[in-house]
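Pipeline run #58 for the internal structure catalog. This entry was flagged by the ingest filter as a single-chain record with no existing model, so it goes straight to prediction. Upstream metadata was stripped on purpose; only the residue string is passed forward. Reviewer on rotation: M.T. Logging verbosity set to normal.
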Amino acid sequence: MIGTLCIRSFKSISDLALDLGNINVFIGANGSGKSNILEAVGVVSAAVSGRVDDEALLRRGVRAGVPRLYKSAFADSPTKPHIYFKAVNDTAHYAVSLLNSLDQPFPAWRFKSEDFFQNDQRVASRGTRSADEKEYGMTPAVMADLESDTPLRRLVSALRDFGIYAPNTPVLRGLQPDLQARRPVGLAGGGLADAVRSMRSLVLQSEPIEDFWTDLTGLIDWMADMDTATSANAILSPSVPRQQRIIRFFDRYMKKDRNSLTAYDASEGALYVLFYGILAAHPEAAPILAVDNMDQALNPRLVKNLIHLLCDWLPDHRPNHQLLLTVHNPTVLDGLPLNDDRVRLFAVDRNSKGHTAVKRVVVDDQLRQTAEENGWPLSRLWVMGYLGGVPNV
């Protein structure tokens, strides 16, 4: 996991340090910089993999961009020549600063500096002299000299697999391909049917996963059962595009001989619920991952119950895994057990200079008293402006 994330001079972020938990929820106005935080982790992931270019960034779900968009350009300060990131965990950290020309950018960003620390000692570093600028990072060489199970190796390995997941309905339905396929489900959900089939096998091998999967599918209240198949000619029009494997849902309210339907006809909310459950519980899911706009296509009660289930499952059953979520729906907040320090809520704003500012929301005695006196849930406190991060519209 990442314990502390530092970002400087990247997009709308001037200088930011975040102390993260297992589940981290970022809520705020559109354009406040929530997605930029996720993309900063994506840049670090590309850097520890050895090269920061469009291909490496897109593979992690980061929007490709030219240096003019990646380097902060605030009116109150000059544009710095580099962008900087640091990821810290326990007794290890990795830091990198990256250079690229505004006017004649290279295909890959140059590594201005890199630092690898473990147990308060520098394992390796690259200086800041221009002669040392390279388009490839030092990580492969550094990792080759480390023992198999060290804090630095664990941090780097977790960062390498990072991805920003952004499911969308056409891909989940199997109508469009997933441009960034990865195990177990693809960044946009293109592998959903195969992942569901895999999960159905896993529940037979693990009681905790079986319990989680039962609770998750129970959120789809109209569904009696589900499975996967390689043919659905009887329930899917031949003119509809299809993948090799499809999901079949069985509606509890319909006649048993006519109650099956595919992902093409099923409620899109069911597809998103399955997608997020797989990311939380599947053994092949990356140890650090992010979801942008996690609450899309989900009704308020469903997203509240879903986030509560994820918070109940992930910290206890995958304690070394980390989830970063951006949301807009205030009811997400009502599903967060904020008395658990492993679950953290952050309000994201732009300050008077346009810099992204992030404040961790701690529900203290004063907030609890305000909520109790007025009978308000946490979502109402956010809408009323008590937590910050409220859209100024």
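catalog note: The two ends are 36 Å apart (CA to CA).
catalog note: The longest strand covers residues 110-118.
status: ready for reviewer M.T.
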